[in-house]
Specification:
Rossmann fold, 10 helices, 7 strands, AB_hydrolase_fold
């Protein structure tokens, strides 16, 4: 059973762009970007099964604990790229899909020519003893998961406005969150917010553009700088900070994000270069082996 569904292909051209949405959203949240991207590129979209539109009734049942893993999402990204006969794609991973994209690129570097890691975070929980700032204390994550478990609808109503940051963009995000089965949503949230994917960063060799939003409470720009510092094997690891708010720039700041993507596509395969909204990263000094870890081979 695959965890992706509703695969859609639009446009055409020499470059292939794969848009992988994040937690609580679905492929419709890319709609503001697709018309421009598809004029000169082949664009692939899909839904993860937790969206509520991902397939059979079994996807909407209570999820067993531990069923969802980043490695499994990465395997399904690989399967999608293989199924569509893609090699050298530009893979755009939003939020949780960014880390799945990193793992996929390590397992199958032939499939991806450039990673765009949008609002990514390898670890949401602070680790003061390691000097790592993920943005959340453990108590806050525990409280969030408890709130989801007790009244998922009420949690969505409180969480989404903070995550989006723009009142006009709240309705579509709220609707996509509420389309998830509460049990499935809770298990995917556990995977995301309790996980630690920092260990994969040093194994990524594919050129990366790490795109963060200045006013994103979930994944602040400091996390992007941390990721860049750990991606010492990547052909390039550039940070671009969009001057906007929230965790969904494809809705709130679509033109700024489109500018970044078009800059990547103009120079795809070479990494580096200076984009419209940020400079290419300077070479970073060698750092210690990445913390945390995930088995990137299994």
């Amino acid at each position: 059973m695959r965890w992706y569904a509703n695969v859609r292909e639009v446009g055409g051209g020499d470059a292939t762009v794969v848009l992988a949405h994040g937690y609580g959203s679905n492929q419709a949240l890319w709609d503001k970007l697709v018309p421009a991207l598809s004029r000169r590129n082949r664009v692939i979209l899909f839904d993860w099964d937790f969206t509520g539109g991902g397939g059979g009734a079994e996807h909407q049942e209570e999820a067993e604990e531990g069923r969802y893993t980043f490695g499994r999402f990465a395997d399904d990204l690989i399967a999608l790229l293989d199924d569509k006969g893609m090699r050298g794609a530009v893979l755009v991973g939003h939020s949780m899909s960014a880390m799945a994209a990193c793992i996929a690129s390590v397992r199958r570097p032939d499939l991806v020519t450039h990673l765009v890691l949008l609002c990514a975070s390898p670890r949401y929980i602070n680790s003061p003893e390691e000097g790592y700032v993920g943005g959340f204390e453990m108590a806050g994550i525990d409280g969030m998961l408890d709130a989801m478990s007790s009244d998922f609808g009420a949690w969505v109503k409180g969480f989404v406005p903070n995550a989006v940051g723009d009142p006009a963009s709240i309705p579509p995000v709220e609707a996509s969150f509420l389309a998830m089965h509460p049990g499935v949503a809770l298990e995917v949230a556990r995977m995301i917010f309790l996980g630690d994917q920092r260990g994969v960063l040093g194994a990524v060799t594919t050129p990366c553009t790490i795109v963060q939003v200045a006013g994103d409470f979930a994944a602040p720009p400091s996390v992007a700088e941390y990721m860049k510092s750990r991606m010492t094997a990547a052909a390039a690891a550039d940070v671009v900070v969009i001057d906007s708010v929230g965790h969904f720039p494809q809705l709130v700041a679509p033109q700024q994000l489109l500018d970044v993507l078009e800059s990547v596509l103009r120079g795809r395969g070479g990494g580096g270069g200076e984009g419209e909204h940020g400079a290419a990263g300077e070479p970073v000094a060698e750092v210690a082996e990445a913390d945390g870890g995930i088995d990137i081979t299994a």
